[in-house]
Specification:
This protein is mainly alpha-helical. The protein has 2 domains: about 60 residues; about 130 residues, no CATH class. It is about 80% helix and about 0% strand. The chain contains 8 helices and no strands. Helix 1 runs antiparallel to helix 3, helix 3 runs antiparallel to helix 7 and helix 4 runs antiparallel to helix 6. The longest helix has 28 residues. The chain is globular, with a radius of gyration of 18 Å. The model has no long low-confidence stretch (mean pLDDT about 95).
């Protein structure tokens, strides 16, 4: 469990700087420059992600069961994962109404994904992994929305065709990940 926790700290440390220390972040970027900041951010995040995967794999080999997930949990996870993929796609398709409304659809997608996985998994490692993702996404979403309001930031929608692109891309990505990538990458058959 130690590797998982260390990985989460290393991964979410850089991802949380804007939440807890935005002024420090700006000062560091001013001192070392954007390329160096992004390089350090990326390196620490990748090391954290590798440790998360490694630590979660170790924890799954000897799980500590906290609760038995309900039978409907898997269906809820599938639905929330579909929503998550659509929201993540909407974060990358400019001019969607989804982005206009939510401001930060990727963070909303992470919340949906993490909540869904908490509903269908009941081990200590699952609670730690998906719980940390959920808490981080909730906090980051709230801070980001508050910052948008303070700065008067708006993201105007360009048309419903952009939303259709995001929805189709999200559905396709969900199908590809669930049918062909979830087992080799995660080791679990979702359906």
């Amino acid at each position: 469990m130690g590797w998982l926790i260390l990985g989460l700290v290393l991964f979410f440390g850089p991802h949380s700087v804007r939440i807890f220390a935005d002024d420090w972040r700006s000062a560091m970027i001013g001192r070392i420059g954007v390329p160096a900041w992004k390089g350090i951010y990326t390196l620490v995040s990748i090391i954290g992600l590798v440790l998360i995967v490694h630590g979660y794999g170790i924890a799954r080999a000897d799980p500590t069961l906290l609760w038995t997930p309900p039978a409907w949990g898997r269906h809820a996870t599938a639905l929330l994962s579909l929503v998550a993929f659509v929201l993540v796609a909407a974060a990358y398709v400019p001019g969607t109404h989804i982005r206009e409304r939510l401001g930060h659809p990727m963070l909303a997608g992470v919340k949906a994904w993490a909540l869904g996985h908490l509903l269908s998994n009941g081990t200590l490692a699952d609670l730690i992994l998906f719980g940390v993702f959920l808490v981080w996404a909730i906090a980051h979403f709230a801070v980001s929305r508050r910052r948008d309001r303070t700065e008067g930031r708006v993201r105007p929608a360009a048309g419903w065709s952009r939303d259709a692109i995001a929805i189709v891309a999200g559905i396709v990505a969900t199908g590809v990940f669930a049918m062909w990538l979830h087992v080799p990458l995660i080791g679990v058959r979702p359906f």
